[in-house]
Each structure stands twice: as structure tokens, then as C-alpha cells.
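User: I'm preparing a small set of examples for a lab meeting where we compare how different chains pack in three dimensions. I only have the primary sequence for this one, and I'd like the structure in C-alpha cell form so I can line it up with the others. Please keep the answer compact; I'll paste it straight into my notes.
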Amino acid sequence: MLVSAIGMLMQLQFAGAPAVAREPTPDSASSLHAVQDAQRDFERSRRGLLPWEDNAGGRCDERVGRFCWWYDEGGADSVPEADAITQRRIGLLRQLDLHLLDHPGDAWATSLRVRYRAEAGHLAEAIAAAEACSASVWWCSALTGYAQHIAGRENAADSSFRSALVAMPPAMRCAWQDISTLLPADDRRRYRALDCADRHQWEGRYWMLSRIRLSTLGDEWRNEFLSRRVIAGISALSATPHALRWGDDAAELVLRYGWPMRWARARERSTALVAPTIIGHDPAPSFPLAPDAPFDSSLALPDDAWNLRSHSGPARYAPARTHSIGVVSAQLARFQRGDSTLVVAAYATNDDSLQNAQAWLTAFSTPAIFVTRGDSAHVGRLAVMSAGSPPLVGIELVDTTTRRLARSRRAFGREPAHAALMISDLLLYRARDEPPESVEQALETAIAGDAITVGERLGIFWETYGLAGDGEPVEVRVVLERLGSGWWRRARERLGLATAESPLQIQWPDARPSAGGVASRGVAVDLSALAPARYRVAVVISTRSGDVANAEREIEIHSR
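Assistant: Understood. Below is the C-alpha cell output for the 560-residue chain.
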């Protein structure tokens, strides 16, 4: 990922910039001016020592004010820093340390002390420098969260950032939590029209749906976003490698795409009066973590709502401990257990890069998460019990050796008000001679994903809630409806050259007794008469009193 700076200069008074703790004395002002000059000198000398490389040749995936940004997964390879830059950074840090011995409350100098140690890879020293901060409480907590996040201590970073937000003045807290730059244009306009209190629902849903992993406590992407706030705050009052005054466009660029991991000079025409363009290489590979969905709604989302391979999107992040993210075939379903929910998963993958992976099934229900771990990384079945009704569930295969993550998840829509009659999710399985009598039995042969072969018998398992224990009569209807017929087929149907396809329907009366208000049912459907295609499977339950409940799922029927 690359960034190049172009165009006019702007200046910004950034709301998130740290404030110096006290009015400077003449001595402290003199010392501060000296370290400010030293910091400008360091960035000026850094620019003169950067390696030369070709520009993007006019390519621009996204223009943000003066800046042109483009995604290049192969452009962020590590290049050794020039020794002269390393030595000059050491000299700057020594001067900052000496200044802070006499003026420990200087928030700006403290911030640079942390930032440049993190930039040099001295992460333990960066954390120690942040923890020694004696500026304003909120800024010191934010600096600590930034250093902990860079070091991969996500739980600690999450805690530090929460402390920072609590300690902030309300207006600043609102500004720091503002996610408008991360949203698509339409959502961004609606979000910005809200006041801070009304934005919380959007923000909570965005961070829930955009988590890299559901099975970890710390939210790495949210920590990264708040770390970008820290970097933007520091940069607003400091010289940067770009040699440009800070502006709204620079802040937006950092918030959306992050801070570059290395810099270079573009090999293009320049003169003594025109400085070379500076290219910033962002960490790669990076991913658009948010689903393609409106965030002001509670719509149900299938796994393909998250397109992690897209090179577009309003924001991206390259997680340091996850080098690649793939997809695992999985079927996820929920079943009521009083005030709790049983979540089950059947999964399979043939991803050879997952050599030492661990499988995790997570029911995400803010503020708690419920996780279970599997023994097999490539094929398995898992179950976890969750309090309440989790809005998001997912299966994750994690290989820390190769830094490979494969995942599948589902977000569920807003639960309806309690109804007299309710039905669970459908659990599709490969039918045996005898139908399953429980979730556990159906899970044994549950389909890992959404595909089955022509000629197999499809099993459909569900639970019905709210029926009388002695066997209340209900009408059961199972529907298999073909989805997305091709344009040629539809044209032939309109011309009368082909008969319109009718859904396969099976209907029968049922009065199976329920146990504890739960009636389980498994049925087998012969697929031999259906052509290979994608189908919607639906189950509709209705009572004589007029109550109706339904559930549906999609499945792909493949040819042999």
C-alpha cells in the first residue's frame, strides 16, 4: 500500500492533539524550542537519506486532498533503514530524554519519545516511556494504549484506551470515537447528522462486525484506529517525513489507511526548488474489515458480506499477527435453551497452509464472548453455550506459525418480540436411515458449509418452541426453491419455450410432543429430481390458532 503527497499546503488545528500540561517557563520554552528544532532537523535529514524508487505511474485508487493513495500488496517489502537515519534517531531520543528530565510534564516531547521508540522497534522501551508519562491523564493513557497495541498486547491496549476515553472531556471523547472516516459515503452522511449519544449504536455495530477475530478479548482493529488517532495528534504538532503542513486530508489518510511502515523518494523530475515527492509504504497485506452493509440497521448478514479480498473500501488495516485471511466452509446454527443459546458449527477446509491451526467457535454477545476450542484444524464439529441470543457467531481456524486465519461468520437480524411460536435455525445434514432426535445427533452428519451432491438425501433438522407439551397439532411445510436462474432460462420461460420452475414443496400435519416446550424434528428430502443449482430451503410451521414461524437457509446442489 502506497501513499504519495501532492498539491497545495494546508494547516489544521487538530482537536485530538495533546496539550502541554503547564504554561512553559523561559527555561522550559528554550529547551522545548531546541528539541522542536532537533525533531525538524531529524525529519529533514531523514528525507534526504531515503531510498529512491519509481512512483505509481499516475495510478491513484483514492484521492484524499493533496494525497494520492493506491494499494500495492507487493510494495511494502522490508528495506533496511539507512544507518545514518538510525543514528540520528538515537540522537534525537537522547535529546528528548534530557529535556524530559527537567520538564516531565511536556506532553509533546513525551509523545515523540514514545513514537520514535516504537518506530525503531524498541517496543518495551516505548511502553515504559508511555507509562512514565506525567502529562494529562487521558493523553498518557492513550499513549500507553498506542505503545501496547504496537507491541501486540491487545487486551492491555484495549484497557488503556478505555481509560483514556473515560478521562477525556466529552467533546474530545466524541471526536475520538467518531468513525465517519471509516464508513461508506452514504453511511457517513447519515452518521455525521447524529449527535454523539445517537452515534453509539452505529459505533457498537461497526466494531462488532469489523473484528478480525471474534475469539479474542481485545479488539485489534479498534485499538489500531485509536492508535491512528494518537499518531494524528502527534503529527499535527510535529514535522513529518512528507515535509507538508498537517491538514484534514493528512488526518483522514492516517485514520483510513494507517501510518506508513517505511518511506521513499519518488524517482521523478525535481529541482532544487521543488522537493521530491515522498512515498509512504503502508503495512501489507491489508484488509477492508467492515462488511458491505449499512451500519444503521440490524440486518442479518451471511459470510460473503465480508469481502476481505477487495482492494477498495473506505478503510483498511494490516494486522501484524495475521498475514492472510481465508474462508472456511462452515454451517452455523442456533438453538434456544431457556435464556441461553446453543450454537453449533460444522466446518471443513482443505487449506494446506493451516498446518498447526486451532479451531475456535465463538458466540459474540457484547460485552461477553463465549468460546470453545476444537481438536481438529481441518474438519470438525463444535458447540458452545451462550447467554442470551448472540447477534454474531463465527468459526475461526488460527495458525500462529504461518499467521494464517481462515474464518466464517454470520450476523443475525434483530430478534422479534417474544412470539407464541418460534423456530430455530435450520441445520442441514446428510440423511441416514433414522432421523436424528436431537441437535447433537444431527450435528454428527451436519454439512460443513452449504454444498451437497445430486443424488444425496438432504436432511433438515430444526426445533420448534412454544408448542403444548402433549402434542399440539401443527402444519409443516418444507420448500426448496431454485435461486438465480440464468437469463437464458428466464428468456425461454417468457417465450414459452421452457416451463417455469416451481418450488419443490412437501407439506404434512404433525403433532409431535414437545419436551420442556421444545419439539425436535428431522426430515429427509430426495434431491434426485433437482438440477444442480443454488436453492433456498425453508421450513414453515403454522398452528390452528394462526401462529406462524419460519426459518430458511441456502444450499448449493453440485453435480457428481
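A couple of notes for your slides: The longest strand covers residues 533-543. The radius of gyration is 28 Å.

User: Perfect, thanks.
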